[in-house]
Design a protein that fits this description.
two-stranded antiparallel ribbon; seven-stranded antiparallel sheet; disordered N terminus; Immunoglobulin-like; 1 helix; 9 strands; alpha+beta
Amino acid sequence: MRLIARLLIASLMGIVVLIGSVSRSSADGSILRARARVSGVAGSGISGEILFFQARQGVPAEVLILARVEGLAPNSVHGFHLHENGTCSPDFTAAGGHYDPGPAGNSNPDNNHPFHMGDMPNLRADNKGVAQFEHVTSRVTIAPGPLSLFDANGSSVIVHLNEDLGTTGVPGGSGGPRIACGIIELIP
């Protein structure tokens, strides 16, 4: 038990140091930051915040994605993706398909899956319905360029009702219905 407590404390201290260094670095412009505030349909109780961090320099460009989503069913698993349009209205289908830019891109969630640039690991809610997520990706950027989430129509984050099975050609295998959405915006 003491080992678990020590590991938990060490992990928390590491996150505090990382966030502190990101805050200092972003003040001098060396770290780009973005945020999406997700919410479910009215009355669902689903809400959360997704944070994106990227160093201005570095090859390959890597984006750290941190998320916390509340109001999910306890002990549930949900598909979690970056989508091709920066809108959530009139309903979550306006977010379009999975983010997959380029001449060979295919945003259909049931085709080319799990190889879309916007595919990410599943969200896993704890026994209180809270999902916390940390992921590093080189599939997208928040800086200008061909993989930027900030193209002409922006991008959004979608939480799906079901688990993403990581399958291709299976209807609903990428998470099924959309239960929450958030527009990704740069943080100055």
